[in-house]
Structure formats: structure tokens, C-alpha cells
Amino acid sequence: MSVITQAIATADREVRYLSKGELDMIGRFFNDGPQRLRIVSILNSNVDEIVEKGSRRFWQQHPETPSHSGNPRFQSSCLRDQAWFIRLISYAVAVGDVDPLESSGVRGARQMYLSLEVPLRLVAQCVRSLKDVTLDMLSVEDAAEVGPYFDYLIAGLMP
């Protein structure tokens, strides 16, 4: 839930107006908006490079995975999922909240990979590789903003 939605929902539930602290928090959210949108733009513009380098890095560490077996179907599914994770991260950065990661990225992905008998530790390691590649292309300040969203997703995928 975004900062704005959360503040309004809390105030409404408590039948009161937004407090000074909540208004300040919303103001900071808007002030940080250009940075978040710039990061989203970087992720969107570089998703192919992130996925390519991230998958290469992952397969160097785990060459025995089905996605690296030479089966083009397995490989394309893996690459598609990696791009999907980057998209979810970009949504989370845009709204400044983990909510887009929670329902689809954590609960949905866990269920899907468990049903396919894909080891969650490998999925988490793959997301770590995506994180490393992404953070390498960002400034320190931008990396500090996006890193926690990757960490949230990785922690949620761990068995």
C-alpha cells in the first residue's frame, strides 16, 4: 500500500483528518517522486541488459539448473520470469512500497515455483544476481532506494 493510500486509510479508519506527520510523510513521498521515477525509467530501459547479465552471472554459479540445460523452452521461461521480477521491482519503486512485490512476487511466485518443483533457493539466488547487476548500473543513492525492494523479494522467496 502506498504511503498516500496507507495514510488516508488509517485516518479514515480512525475517523479523523490527516495529521501533520502524515501530511509531511506524503510531502516527502512527492518530493522523492522524481528520483523514484528516474529509477523506474532506468530499470525499464535496461531490463534486457539486466536479465542478460543477471542470468549469465546466475548460470556461472549454478550451471546445473534446468534453465541452463540447453532446452530453449526452459531458458526462455527463466528469462521471461527474470524480466517479470524487474517489472515488479519497478512497480514497487514507483509507489514506494513493497505491496506490488507481496501478492505477485512473493506469494504468487512461491506457489508457482513450488508447484513446478523449482528450488526456491535457486530462484532467490537468480534474483540476487539481478540485484547485483542492477545496483552496478545505479548511483549509490539510487541503489540505496532500489536495493531494499530486491532484498524483500529475495527474503520472500527463501524456503
Brief synopsis:
The protein is an all-alpha fold and 159 residues long. 81% of the residues lie in helices and 0% in strands.
Question: Can you offer a commentary on this structure?
Answer:
The chain is mostly helical and 159 residues long. The chain has 7 helices and no strands. The chain folds into 2 domains: 1-31, no CATH class; 33-157, Phycocyanins (Globin-like), CATH 1.10.490.20. The protein has helices at residues 3-13, 20-31, 33-61, 72-95, 99-115, 120-136, 140-157. It is elongated and about 60 Å long. The model has no long low-confidence stretch (mean pLDDT 92).
CATH structural fold name of the largest domain: Globin-like
The CATH superfamily of the largest domain is known as Phycocyanins
DSSP helical segment count: 7
Q: Based on the structure given, which CATH architecture of the largest domain is correct?
A: Orthogonal Bundle
Helix content: over 70%
Pairing-aware structural class of the strands and helices?
Answer: mainly alpha
CATH class of the largest domain: Mainly Alpha
Tell me the distance between the termini: 25 Å
Q: Main beta sheet: strand number and arrangement?
A: none
Mean pLDDT metric: 92
Order of helices and strands: HHHHHHH
Q: List segments where confidence is low: pLDDT < 50 over at least 5 consecutive residues.
A: none
Number of strands: 0
Number of domains: 2
Structural Rg: 18 Å
